[in-house]
Amino acid sequence: MRVTALAGGTGAAKFLRGLTAVIAPEQVTVIGNTGDDALIWGLHVSPDLDTVIYALAGLLDESKGWGIRGDSFRCLAAMATLGRETWFNLGDRDLATHLFRTERLRTGESLSQVTDALRRTLGVGSRILPASDAPVSTRILTPEGWLGFQEFFVREKARPEVLDVAYAGADLAHPAPGVLEAIEMATAILVCPSNPITSIGPILAVPGIVDALGAARGEILAISPIVGDAPVSGPAGKLMAARGLSVSATGVARFYRPWLDTLVLDRRDEALLSSLQELGVTPVLADTLMTDREKAEALARRVLELLT
Ligand code: FO1
Q1: Mutate which of 88, 102, 128, 155 to test ligand 1's pocket (most atoms within 8 Å of Cβ)?
Q2: Residue 231's pLDDT is what?
Q3: In the structure, which protein residues have their CB atom closer than 6 angstroms to any atom of ligand 1?
Q4: Which residue ranges form the domains of the chain, and what is each CATH number?
Q5: Does pTM surpass 0.85?
Q6: pLDDT attached to residue 229
Q7: Which of the chain's ends, N or C, has fewer CB atoms near its CB within 10 Å?
């Protein structure tokens, strides 16, 4: 079995850790979001790629859902003394990842080459591919104007009203090497329980990826990140509403509907089964809240059962 997973950050990391505990990591290829990449102190930070790499390497700070467990923040404190902006909390060990990435990008390597070097060095057996090597930046329109995703999410704490969302650069981007093949050759394609608009949306915005999903031979299964009328974490609700989607598993299905076969949704959402069937998506109930590793593995096992 070859599984290709479309992934954002924290929710995807939890699920992928469960998945790679129940099948060999080498059987999994991750297509990761780069829409929330940011330039911080001149360094190229790729939060979602790093969150997935750290999770699969056993390094992730699981309480925060990002960064490295036990990291210190001495550089951050020193930057504050120098009067630099410190709203984006870069840990000292995490900083090494961004120095490594930025240096290698400057010497002409692509983001996919650097990401591959990072995951191999950290002992991650799954391939991790950025959706594109070209910049695709999630921009959020608020009443005060456009913000970068991290400015909206971290600096402004996702408080501003969201009027629109755009993926700047997507029209000029191409899928990174291996991305279309990973979709084409997969036995199954999984859409992790990530924010549809800002984690999966930037992947889908890269020309060629939606067509590849539409033509894929493998079954395509998504796990809803929404339980009831609220996201399990983060600002997905606000962003979905701004894009005219209902904040529910049905809204998730509507967004993925052109190419989705199956939606795994939480048992608490049993009432949505018939509306999902009407959309032409096969709904399956499961315990989707991954509050510990056992629950993440159980969800991964349930998903794999559906595929065999
Ligand atoms: N999220 C926060 O809420 N506050 C932070 O200061 C922060 C720093 C940070 C540093 C490195 C990194 O890889 C991720 C970081 N995140 C932080 C998480 C990140 O903003 C989001 O989780 C993702 O972009 C959304 O998936």
Answers
A1: 88
A2: 72
A3: 8-10, 36, 45, 47-48, 50-51, 66-67, 88-90, 94, 150, 153-154, 199
A4: 3-138+168-307 (3.40.50.10680)
A5: yes
A6: 80
A7: C
Amino acid occupying residue 287: D
Q: 168 is written with which tokens?
A: 């700047």
